């Protein structure tokens, strides 16, 4: 949650940069819809020849995503990768200083929504939007979803049998779960989206009672929680991202996952910087990230849930309730506070 202070500070940074941000958005091919669009885009993108890409994507996945683009189009992708708070901080501070190094962003939808509010992105019109999951593209079209980080429940298969799994969150009130439950300590977005679907009063009372009766250990970081399930230290975790237990299971680890309804997911997405130095190359990469025969296929091979509906989901038939990035920004204090009240303070990090 270290990115939150940078959202709060973004307004000041944007104000300092007002003369820069007041400029018109780049008028290249980002809005162009003519029949020769693809031909023009390829020509313009190759003329620019490169992009600067700021992302939080896992380093181990970057080359698998970028290499096919560079090979196909001959456009170099320079990457600056860091954690969420650092990417957000750098975007805001560079804009405040009038430096426009970044062309494309890729990270969480709440952070992209924050950059949209501070006028650091620009809108796009793309034929690929009709292929994206219904309701996942914001009306302003200044970022687009690439993958859905689905919160699933993971369990250690040596310690819990499949037939013993809970069928609902209410089943976690059973005393057999005492000392066996865990949650990632910054899962407040999952909690907020869940409460809005369950009913806040009902949901808050339920989870408070679960914690009171059976306890709830907390670990910081979804990868760590996943590893704790594998080790058996957290026999049943309520919040890990869906691709993590799938990958661990494929490696032979004693872990599997399931989903308690309502299923919750958070989008990650891609956006073009408002003052991109290479806007056409950025657009070509942007559409590669959304394309079923581009990065979407690579994401799917990594067990992520792709936003492009032309590709099958690793979680077929699951209806997802998406975290609302607008609420995530506007109601941070409410939901982080309530999460702490229900689950406890959590570990320092």
Helix proportion range: 40-55%
- N-to-C span: 10 Å
Q: Can you tell me the residue ranges where pLDDT is under 50 for at least 5 consecutive residues?
A: 10-27
The CATH class of the largest domain, by name, is Alpha Beta
Number of structural domains: 2
In total, the number of strands is 11
Biggest sheet, open or closed, and with what strands and sense?
A: 11 strands, mixed
Beta-strand content: 15-25%
Specify the CATH homologous superfamily of the largest domain.
Periplasmic binding protein-like II
Order of helices and strands: HHHEHEHEHEEHHEHEHEEHHEEHH
The CATH topology of the largest domain is what? D-Maltodextrin-Binding Protein, domain 2
Tell me, rounded to a whole number, the average pLDDT.
Answer: 92
CATH architecture term of the largest domain: 3-Layer(aba) Sandwich
Number of helices: 14
């Amino acid at each position: 949650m270290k990115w939150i202070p940078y959202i709060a500070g973004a307004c000041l940074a944007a104000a300092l940069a007002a003369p820069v941000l007041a400029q018109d958005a780049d008028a290249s091919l980002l809005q162009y819809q003519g029949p020769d669009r693809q031909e023009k885009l390829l020509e313009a993108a190759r003329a620019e020849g490169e992009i600067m890409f700021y992302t939080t994507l896992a380093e181990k996945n970057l080359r698998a995503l970028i290499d096919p683009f560079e090979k196909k189009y001959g456009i170099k992708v320079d990457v600056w990768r860091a954690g969420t708070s650092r990417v957000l901080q750098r975007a805001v501070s560079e804009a405040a200083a009038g430096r426009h190094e970044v062309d494309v962003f890729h990270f969480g939808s709440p952070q992209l929504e924050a950059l949209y509010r501070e006028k650091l992105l620009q809108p796009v019109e793309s034929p690929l939007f009709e292929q994206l999951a219904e309701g996942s593209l914001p009306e302003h079209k200044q970022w687009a979803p690439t993958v859905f980080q689905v919160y699933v429940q993971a369990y250690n298969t040596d310690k819990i049998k499949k037939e013993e799994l809970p069928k609902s969150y209410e089943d976690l009130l059973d005393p057999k779960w005492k000392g066996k439950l865990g949650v990632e300590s910054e899962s407040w977005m999952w909690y907020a989206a869940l409460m809005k679907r369950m009913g806040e009063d009902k949901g808050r009372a339920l989870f408070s009672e679960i914690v009171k009766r059976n306890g709830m250990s907390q670990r910081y970081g979804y990868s760590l929680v996943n590893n704790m399930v594998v080790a058996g230290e957290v026999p049943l975790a309520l919040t890990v991202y869906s691709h993590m237990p799938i990958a661990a299971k494929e490696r032979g680890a004693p872990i599997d996952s399931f989903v308690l309804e309502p299923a919750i997911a958070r989008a990650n997405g891609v956006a073009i910087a408002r003052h991109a130095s290479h806007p056409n190359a950025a657009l070509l990469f942007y559409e590669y990230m959304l394309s079923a025969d581009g990065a979407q296929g690579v994401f799917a091979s990594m067990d992520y849930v792709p936003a492009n509906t032309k590709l099958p989901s690793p979680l077929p038939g699951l209806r997802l309730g998406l975290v609302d990035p607008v609420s995530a920004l506007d109601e941070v204090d409410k939901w982080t506070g309530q999460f702490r009240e229900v689950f406890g303070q959590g570990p320092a990090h």
